[in-house]
Amino acid sequence: MKKIFEVPLYPYKRHADEDASSPVRRKVVVIGAGPVGLAAAIDLAQQGTEVVVLDDNDKVSFGSRAICFAKRPLEILDRLGCGQPMVDKGVQWNTGKVFFDDRQVYEFNLLPEEGHKRPAFINLQQYYFEEYLVNRVRELQEQGAPIEIRGRNKVSAIGSHPTHAVLEIDTPEGSYTLEAEWLIACDGAGSPTRQMLGLDFVGRVFEDNFLIADVIMEADFPSERWFWFDPPFNKGQSALLHKQPDGVWRIDLQLGWDIDKEREKRPDNVIPRLKAMLGEDVKFELEWVSIYTFQCRRMEKFRHGRVIFAGDAAHQVSPFGARGANSGLQDTDNLCWKLKLVMDGKAPEGLLDTYDAERIHGADENILNSSRSTDFITPKSEISRVLRDAVLDLSEQYEFARPLVNSGRLSVPCTYDGSPLNSADALDGPDRTRPGSPCPDAPLGDGFLLDKLGDKFVLLTIDADAPDVIVEEGIEVTRLALSIKDDKTLALQQRYLGKHESGVYLIRPDQHVAARRPAFDENQFRHAIRRAIGKE
Ligand SMILES: Cc1cc2nc3c(=O)[nH]c(=O)nc-3n(C[C@H](O)[C@H](O)[C@H](O)COP(=O)(O)OP(=O)(O)OC[C@H]3O[C@@H](n4cnc5c(N)ncnc54)[C@H](O)[C@@H]3O)c2cc1C
Q1: Which Pfam families does the entry mention (predicted)?
Q2: What is the DSSP letter of 449?
Q3: CB 512 within 8 A of CB 438
Q4: Distance from the alpha carbon of residue 54 to the mean position of ligand 1, in angstroms
Q5: CB of 494 closer than 6 angstroms to any ligand 1 atom
Q6: Which of 83, 160, 348, 489 is the most buried (most CB within 10 A)?
Q7: Residue 240: CB within 6 Å of ligand 1?
Q8: Which residues face 203 on adjacent strands?
């Protein structure tokens, strides 16, 4: 049977735009039907914005690539209507184990806290993730949403103008020109858009190679993340093992810098390496083998007039910590509501510059974490290695040393501290819900909090009075009234009130906190709304 990544999911079909006598201007064009481009398009289409996705391919990602999807992206995918198939298919895991040489030094639990709809992480092949996004596009199309994917439409030239962008597109039947009021470039780490516009992409190259093998095997390893430093089967290097659905296991072996990549990728070299790790008797089949090197870098700015970059096109990190696709989804989550308000004339164009500010803050946090993990995993000098090994030795017995071990700090969402959209914190409540934070989930009697937030501004009141609706600058803010009386698990109290008896939160369409106070104050909340849409 063919694998999902071998089947064209959005085959080329000639479009009327190709035969138009003058270039057609579309509202939003997204370049790239990778996870980030598809998420952006779904987000916009759900809000009724016309969007066209162009991709030079017609299939989902070849081979697995990303496998770990964190809680926050799953919450975003819930908002986009495709979180459930991810969780249904994905392998859930919370436990990570760290090994040094031939012994386990410690284990950790990613989500000791109860009361979240989504798990800390799931493992799922990137091709399934993209398939579910394409399915969601199809579903939206059936509901009449203005969204389309044009397969085998390769963007070959771009002109950027103050009011629009112009794209030259190559198809199997020739070329055509298309205009876009707004262009979102999600065309991956090698971003042709970035290159065509002559934009920078600077950062650090890590001199190392990693062999990735996805193998199909029957094995009784548990659903945990296992990371080895200097294991007997890969001396002086590292290794990682993760379980994926369909009996597929991800094995990641560090190889060092000076290698012959083509030789290392050959099955007659890969298989003995895997046997040394798994044991001679374990039966497996190779699904996908690849060798990757990585870089940590980003564009100086993500917004260039009418062209906005997201995902790997805007920033790139090492896979340690699973921050690539995860952070790309946080980009589109941040961007799409802002773009919609700007397009509807409800917010000034400057609101889009806060996408730059907030997501560059996120990218820098990811690059910092990813670089630190990489430096720990692959020490750059003998003295660093000695220190690292001492930390690993200590971590076996002493808890204080464990936070110093860095086998990839796993992706957590960024808090937009210092964002110009935040109002000053007037509640002095729990730190994790300060302005700029992504709302933590909490169980409610009839479901979960995050299912009731998102896509629009919400005024969350907990044991506080407020009007059911406030309209400010054309923005309708609806109230979600909750009470601690119904908070059986105390999650709402602990996550949103702390020592207070009541609280009122202004929550953005991307489920981030914009403002909070102990009680409703109309004047203050009207200011907060104006501020959150870039009008103050
Ligand atoms: C080995 C490995 C492991 C990883 N593990 C993880 C992980 O566990 N978790 C995680 O979150 N991330 C992980 N990542 C990163 C993740 O794969 C990327 O961050 C993610 O694919 C980025 O998505 P994107 O949509 O920005 O870009 P891409 O997935 O690269 O998609 C870009 C799209 O643009 C299209 N395109 C390019 N040029 C043109 C053009 N000229 N015209 C039209 N279309 C074009 C391409 O065909 C492609 O479909 C991993 C990456 C690797 C390599």
Answers
A1: FAD_binding_3
A2: G
A3: yes
A4: 15
A5: no
A6: 83
A7: no
A8: 297
With a 6 A CB cut-off, is 408 part of the ligand 1 pocket? no
- Per CATH, 4-16+24-87+111-202+296-367 and 431-532 having the same topology is answered no
Q: With residue 24 as reference, give the H or E element that holds it.
A: strand 24-31
pLDDT along the chain (536 residues), means of 10: 85 98 98 98 97 97 86 96 97 91 90 86 94 97 98 98 98 98 97 96 87 89 90 94 93 92 92 92 90 91 98 90 88 98 97 97 91 86 92 92 82 91 96 98 94 97 98 97 94 97 98 98 98 96
pTM summary value: 0.95
Q: Which residues have CB under 8 Å from 340's CB, separation 6+?
A: 44, 47, 49
- Atom nearest to 123 CA in ligand 1: 8
Which of the listed CATH numbers 3.40.5.60, 1.10.10.10, 3.40.50.1780, 3.50.50.60 matches domain 4-16+24-87+111-202+296-367? 3.50.50.60
| Ligand 1 geometric centre to CA of 490 (Å) | 40
CATH annotation of 431-532: 3.40.30.120
132 touches 249 (CB < 8 A): no
Atom of ligand 1 nearest to the CA of 313: 26
Domain assignments of the chain as residue spans, ordered by start: 4-16+24-87+111-202+296-367, 431-532
Q: For residues 434 and 513, is the Cβ–Cβ distance under 8 A?
A: yes
The answer to whether the beta carbons of residues 37 and 293 sit under 8 Å apart is no
Residue closest to 327 by CA, chosen among 307, 305, 311, 343 = 311
Nearest atom of ligand 1 to the alpha carbon of 169: 42
- Cβ–Cβ < 8 Å for 130, 38: yes
CA 324 – ligand 1 centroid, Å: 8
Could you tell which of 38, 295, 312, 412 is best to mutate to test the pocket of ligand 1, judged by most ligand atoms within 8 Å of the CB? 312
Q: Which pLDDT tens digit goes with each residue over 131-154? A: 999 999 999 999 999 999 999 999
